[in-house]
Amino acid sequence: MRAELDTNLQLLQQTRRSSHAWRRPLGLPENKDAGLMSGRDILCNADVTLDDLAATFPEFSHLRDASRQLRERLEIEVKYSHEIQAQQEAIQQVKREEQMLLPEDMDYFSLNMSNDAKSKLAEARPASIAAASRIPGMTPAAIVILLNHVKSTQRATSPRPNRR
């Protein structure tokens, strides 16, 4: 099934039309974007399903006969690809910055995260992002929030170059 999934993902990515050429046949409202979109881009629209594409565009008609499991997996991979990519980027950011030191006087309760995560950080008072990530029960989302807060605080307090 993986090969079939990859083939269809590639077809969705490589099939490109103007926004108008996708939207009009699908009965979607027009938008200002006149640029090219891939089948993958239009499928990310919450109002478009794979079945819509298969019924409307001949190059996707073969998907009407595909297994329900393949159709569901294809739609899920496309619709959540942006979120998955954002999470992967956040993971890489944490890995790059894991040695970043945390201020000793940091007010963890001012952070926009769960009260449980705030309490765990305040109790453990980790010295670095890496140490914070090893606290039992700390979520990846809380670590990203912590990292972004420290980075923005550092930018705000770092001296600015003199301009004349």
TrEMBL record:
Keyword terms, alphabetized: FAD, Flavoprotein
Species this protein is from: Elysia chlorotica
Protein name per UniProt: tRNA uridine 5-carboxymethylaminomethyl modification enzyme C-terminal subdomain domain-containing protein
Entry cofactors: FAD
Domain tRNA uridine 5-carboxymethylaminomethyl modification enzyme C-terminal subdomain, residue spans: 78-148
Any one Gene Ontology BP term: tRNA methylation
One cellular-component annotation, GO: mitochondrion
Family named by the database record: Belongs to the MnmG family.
